[in-house]
Amino acid sequence: MVIEWNTTNDDQPEDRPPKRAAEYVRMSTEHQKYSTDNQAAEIRAYAERRGFEIVRTYADEGKSGLSIGGRSALQRLFADIDGGTADFEAILVYDVSRWGRFQDPDEAAHYELRCKRAGIAVHYCAEQFENDGTIGSSIIKTVKRAMAGEYSRELSVKVFKGQCRLIGLGYRQGGAPGFGLRRMLADEHGQHKGVLRRGEHKSIATDRVVLVQGPEEEVATVREIYRRFVDERHTERQIADWLNAQGIASDLGRPWTRGAVHQILINDKYAGHNVWGRTSFKLKTRHVRNDPSQWIRHDQAFPAIVSQALFDQARQIIDERSRRLTDDELLALLAGILKQNGYLSGLIIDEFEDGPSSSTYQSRFGSLLRAYSLVGFVPEHDYRYIEINRALRRMHPAIVSDVIDGVRAAGGTAIQNLQDDTLLVNEEITASIVIARCKLTRGGSRRWKVRLDESLRPDLTICVRMDEDNRAAHDFYILPRMTLAEGVRRLADHNGLSLDAFRYDTLAGFFALAERAPFRRAA
Questions:
Q1: What is the pLDDT of residues 194-235, one digit of tens each?
Q2: Which has more confidence, 408 or 288?
Q3: What whole-number distance in Å separates Cα of residue 109 and Cα of residue 503?
Q4: How many CA atoms lie within 13 A of 122 on its CB side?
Q5: CATH topology for 19-153?
Q6: Does domain 385-513 have CATH number 3.40.1350?
Q7: Domain with residues 181-321, CATH architecture
Q8: Whole-model pTM?
Q9: Rounded CA gap, 81 and 78, in Å?
Q10: What interhelical angle do 105-117 and 72-82 show, nearest 10?
């Protein structure tokens, strides 16, 4: 309940026109206590008491408040304010935490100051203080901002400790099982309940996931990979070529590469060990590669596919071949590859058997382009888009999984076709998901090129338009088949009603389509 200490409307004339206001609502994936509907109800009650007319809504659903990145609605709000197109004089927010759980309270103050300088006041409708700029309200607001950020920090610590405990008990924490392995759902007593297929997740909080051996032919293939590598001293490239010649597909249904074979040879799970925490991404700041001493592991947690002795032999071969090189040694090798081939590319580097892979250069120097520049090589074209496209391809399975989860949360069903990644929703509608990279023109305008697979002919195509940094979704287009006459669609910020009628800030509308409604059976 919100107590109104200040009733400012009592002395106002009844015929005074209402003040125009916008509402901002947010619900994060980490904090589900308040839904956007509940926030909007409280905001509208506040607006009625204070004489506001809500003329615009900015909603970020399923978005973390740790930063402004990924919060397309809040970014659009500031774009309207900074661009002078805001047609309101106040912003109504449920409380301080909905504005954001920034780890630096000054960041939250910065965004509010941007509104204030534009002559737009920010109202926190469910807070017990008036945001009127007085010393008392400023102190309380600063404390509230710090508390909002501290909540996320404490939650991150608790979640991390809980994950560490589960790893120590031998349970799997996220990630694909890998070739030759499967995810098994287990109840709180450790009893197996069934294998989880790709894209499926546990639905009961007390259930856990463990790894078990997959089909016998996959297990035999993994053992043959180790045998060829250790006993016959075949390289990863030779083993990948052999697997492809045999018509054996990887766990993702794709041809084998040198890197895919390498991952099988170095991953402890094939020796039965549960290892977690090689990297961390706490509070959505940046990915960090942790020191091996910080990894969490539980030995002999799963049935081993290969013996510990064989696994150690493979690692010894790899360690001897790829000993830790300094940056100068890595660059010297790269310069030698450039001199030998006259050109550099990720494929050329990976084909060089006696040197590190292209991923080593990416992780050590941040990107292949930076490594190229350090040895004096300048590609003929700007290939930055290649790295962006690779990142987007890595992002695609997670987006597909999120869509499946959203459909199921709405009460529908979604089945993924592993051949082309299309979805069959409610056994009636086919949907395809494409990601469109954002490109800035010389004038600073945003453009997106949407490539559509005309051969699939899905009923709906979900187009995810990325933001300027190509790190988070900007918005979504849900395009029916009738709009897909062209194989390539070029989109700008504004595309006319014929296309923008299908634009959405979130996929909530798509998930609502999958909702099942019960009907009485006709007599």
A1: 888 877 777 777 778 888 888 999 999 999 999 999 998 888
A2: 408
A3: 32
A4: 28
A5: Rossmann fold (3.40.50)
A6: yes
A7: Alpha-Beta Complex (3.90)
A8: 0.44
A9: 5
A10: 40
